[in-house]
Amino acid sequence: MESVDSPSQTHERYEWLDQSRGLVSLMFIFAIITYPVSGDPILGIDPLGPTFLNHGYKYFKGPVPLITIVDVGQQIFIFVMGFAAYLAFTSRWSKKGGWTAGLYAARRVGLLFLLSFAEACFEYPGRHEIRWNEVLWEGTLAKLAIGSLAAFSCIALIRDANRRFLFALGVMALHAVCYASPWFDRYGYVNDLPWRPMFPFGAVNLAVVAVVATCFAQWVWTHPEGVAAAFRQRIAPTCFYALGAAYCLGWVQPAHHHDVTASLALFAVGISGLMLTMCFCFGQMGIHFPLLTPLGKNLLLTFVLAAIIVDLYIGLYDREFLAQRPFMTLLLVGILPATILAAVAVFLERRSIILRA
Amino acid sequence: MSESGFTLPYTPWRARYSAVIVCLAAAALVLMRWGMGARVELERLQDGAYDASSLGIAVAMSATQNDGLLPPLDPSSGHLRPKPGVGHPAFLVDGRVKKLEAKPDAGLLLSYLDDGRAFTMKELFASCDFFYLGYAVSNEKEGAALIDAYRARTAQGLGFEEDLAVAAGSGTLGTATLYRLRTDLAEQLAETGVKIEEDSPLPFPVFVERPGHYSVPGGWVIYLDRRVEWLPYPGPFPMTESFMKSLESISPPSAPSPE
After folding, report:
1. Where are the domains of chain B?
2. For the purposes of burial, counting CB atoms within 10 Å of the CB of A304, is it exposed (0-12), middle (13-18) or buried (19 or more)?
3. Domain boundaries defined on chain A
4. pTM as predicted
5. DSSP, residue by residue, B180-216
6. Interface size between A and B, measured as CB pairs under 8 A
7. Which of A85, A157, B60, B85 has the largest count of CB atoms under 10 Å?
8. Measured between CA atoms, how close is A12 to chain B, in angstroms?
9. Would you call B140 helix, strand, or coil by DSSP?
């Protein structure tokens, strides 16, 4: 971990980027909060809290899954991470050389895998075996690690953003074909083929999303007419094409959260790009949400704290107690954990502490 | 900005890139179309195996309530299926799902709703997809004896509650009796001097799927030890041509339900 809000900082911070990261962080906190109180509609246990801020699969798991905005959250998270990683990686390379950039990339990927290992060890204390598939490719942190690795590697190997973008789309097309084919087992156990080998569909397309994010970043930071022109000429049109493609593809290969089908990945790319555009435009217009910047600056820390502590905290409450007291539940479950996490983020920002890999 | 000489370029978008994307999308869609067809066929095969497993579980649950005896054959002519209403094949899971009173022969099928905790009720023994044999037969000769006995008893209006006496050597594993399917059949046969090796799979099919459901000729067979196997058609017993034709002649796919 390091603090980079210091004279050794390799690149300037962009307020609009921190705002968009903060927005992702806030959405993630809400998703973590609503997850354990989703109830069980099949057994007649009503969900608590806003269902649109929870995963669709918490309410329905079928061959064609129910998708909410939270089901795209992981992909948006990795997109924003890939976008920012481009800046961190290339600024190190240009200012301190390839070795420094390479070491930074290795440290970041290594730390994410280490966190993934820690999550596998401590998330379920009663479980005595380590599920290596979760540590290496199925867990959220493992997917972030793989996404980071793919992003750094592709920046180094395919330096033309347009060609890198085409490469990413090629992998996405291959993913769609493999997902449709009878060669591989999918996530879940209905309408899949258990005697076929598992394929890490989710990890692959999340990596693709991260690579696409580096292309977006390169278009933004290298555009000769500046950032605004890049958003106008490249980012916004690409996002609308991505959303159109996601809509069309959704008819033949529906979006799936865990397997990150091409339609979901394209939807995430479109939504993420437009979110960045929105935050950039807000920045230009002087619109600024105070809480988002501190949350965005410590995105990884917020992510880890929310994933571990909030879940444990909500688990302390009796469900019946919460169900009978909606206003108390709003306060104790809906607001308090988010407020505490925001307070921690503000505390760290005021002391210029940014913890990241 | 580039102290190390490292720079990344900005290159304008070219028409050929768009052409590449269009070609990529077209190729992917064509391949997906092919892949989806093949996958759907495999998934149908798997669904058949799930159905076979559910049937096996349902009759096994019934056996737990009937001293190990699997349900008797339906005595009404034209349906090779378990006798309706016998053995209450619907079963409870954790007391959360109740038996469907209106349809006592509907079984619970696990579905994929909400971590598999949802259940749907389905007529398990409709006899449109599977033949239920009711008696322990392991080869063509024993199968033919079962067909003959079935025809004879239904013609006389008799039921299938008892073991059936047949010609010597035509019964279960070469005995003179066709034994009803039961969970302790191996022990019962051992008492008559017919031994089945402990680790060997039981050769007695309980349900046999009608061939012709899939693009690959064949069907699923569930055995007394609840293993489910895919057998090609024509293939080994019970998926032989003559035995299947005999079963089809007794229980045609379009046979109207007596209810």
Report:
1. 45-250
2. middle
3. 15-350
4. 0.81
5. BPBTTHHHHHHHTT----TTSPP--EEEEEPTTSSSS
6. 113
7. A85
8. 12
9. helix
